[in-house]
Please model this.
Amino acid sequence: MKKIFRILFVVLLCFSLWSCGGRGADGKIKLVMWIMPNSQEPVNDVRNVLRPFLLRNPEIEIEVVALDWGSAWQKITTAATSGDAPDIIQLGTTWVGSIGSMDAMLDVSQNVRDIGGGSNLFVDAAWSTTLIPGTERIVSVPWIVDTRVMFYRTDVFRRLGLTAKDVADWDSFEKTLAKIKAADLTIENKHIEPLGITGKNDWNVIHSLAPWIWSSGGDFVSSDFKSSVINSAATQRGLLYYIGLVKKGLVPIQCLEQNSYQISSDFNNGVYAIYFDGPYSLKGMTTPPERGGGGGTFVAKNFAVAPYPAGPLGRYTFCGGSNLAIFKTTKHKEAAWKVVEYLTTNEKAQIAYSQMTGFLPALKSAYNNSYFTDDPFRRVFSDALRSSKAYPAIPAWGQMETVVLTRDLGLMWDEVVRSHGDYSLTQLRNRLDIIQREMNVILTEAAKQWQKHGR
Amino acid sequence: MAKTRKIISNLLETYRKYRLAYIFVMPAVFCLILLHLLPLLQGIWMSLLQMDQFTISEYLGAPFVGWKNYYDVLFNSSSPVRLGFLSAVRNTIFYAIIVTFGTLGIGMIVAQMLNRQFKGRNVLRGLFLFPWIVPTFVVGMLWGFMWQKETGIINIILYDILQIHTWLGWLGVSADKPFWLMGDPKTLAAIIIPTVWRGWPHPMLMLLAGLQGIPHDYYEAADIDGANGWRKFWYITFPLLKPVWAILLLFGLIFNVYAFNIVYMMFGNGAGFPGEWGDLLMTNIFRNSFQRWDFGTGAALSFILMVVMMVVVNFWYKFYKGVEEG
Model:
């Protein structure tokens, strides 16, 4: 009897080890894909996009698992260290530099070359996030893109005789905000505030400030990525302009403690005349309520989108989104690449997923589709991508974004509130000097370690 | 040699004597080693390694750097791990002490109330437990909205309904609705109040159980001696509840020093920075070490904190022994 049990145990062990290898009992290649909650039904949406691919590749089976952004950071690290990792993973573009430096992702440079890929295939800003600067190793492929534009109330603009041209540059933008404030409008029982922005209690702290920094000629790090340039005069000019909108009362000061969802929801409820947001909010406002959207409201019938106002040194907007990467530990490199290739380079798949999530496609050719060319709002988004910029995919970026920039720029907003409208250039300069010092410590150390351990 | 043999024979004799007890205790000891001691040793080992984003794939084989992580934490003021560390220590001390004594104080008052016989006592006892069953993540998120300047319910109650600005105006204090979550000392109050609100039912329950264990004769005797309510509390209730107090004090301090969820969620659901008066040790360590993938310094910081807490527990143990002997 004991002998039978022993044999059974060994057989079971063999079976379980065999299934860990990634082939099901039916001989299919089983892939695991980790994604983030990109839509209301993240898993179903990805499955639906993958359906045509799976019909053509019946030997592949994909288990889609949705993580949340908060825990993903930790889970990816655990996966990278333990080897118990999925085959394919969605990486936020600002994570690529840090996670790429972990040496846990597969080098897909050759695969990308084989499909003739590169900046010719993908949106420029998204493409710039696929590899660590200074290396030739591509560790991720652009999948979805997020960029920001201005949402404004057409009814308010009509009443005051304003057009999109009146928000085309910083000067006219500020004058327009002042005009809206002076008009003291109340529409649909809501007093109209000129502009809604987020301050510190939000995941967009840096993304909201970046366009103003870039448009005034400033930046976060030098062009050789060796040092921080955040305390430059240009950055100070950009930030002072933006903070000035708060100081002048063109932004209700309570905005500074609210998050993006609140500002977006307040715009849709008729509180603000203008705010800045991404393509998913366009989808939200144009989706009828019976399908879970915010369409049908008074504001949803009276809004339009326009690009960011141009600053003294150009018009820039933030470009984020997500790339797809393959873990080195995958046992099915070819199959995993096939899935990544389909999701990132198949035009139909790109547009279908964009329709489901609201995010923009990373594939350039998708913008020639009537889904984008025939819709004036989506056209604004696709035009905005031409002037969009992504953060550098350097190994130190993740550390700087979380520990220094989010913290210190949050402290900047704290000081703005505490100064009761008297926030001065000296205060800003002191804050930026601190940020620069802290960024330089991280940049220097990361460059040293990258040189030592970078593979 | 003879001495060693004697020790071994003594050990064997003890084993034979208590064999059954040892066998029963063995699974617990095994689990303790497996789930507690090994991760602790691993944590200590990690604190001696340079385990960051560049070496994380080597895991426990990452480069050995000796005491460097401890040096960075304790003496290297330019290290990113030290960003906002001192204000986090200050906030944690205030937070842990005020929350622990606040929950104990409120818990004691409510326990005394519930220890009386009145109609609806059981219903009230159940209702009072409500804050304690709300998950800490939810508490943080809800209070994050409640503290907001214009739309938050707290300022609405204080300023729009109770009109406290008229009182504040007489006192010469600004009559504007305040920001609670924008990094000044009010932020500390904004993180302490929800934690006390959520935490007091637990000590209340424990103290109520303790109160119900005190023989009624003591109070009757005190009544005959003409003692008033305060005297009865001070000379009967308080000393007899000391063992419960002591345990609650220890649990409270440890729990509140390691507090994370409420503060983490209150500022933009984990996205924002709590500010110079809102950041606690755990949120600081989480951000500066683990969100930076610097597990080596994170482990060093955690180990230092553990040693500090061991010192606190040691002081508590001496106090507790005094209570027991008393």
In short: Chain A has a mean pLDDT of 89. Chain A has two domains: 25-146+319-389, 149-318+396-453. The first strand of chain A starts at residue 29 and ends at 35.
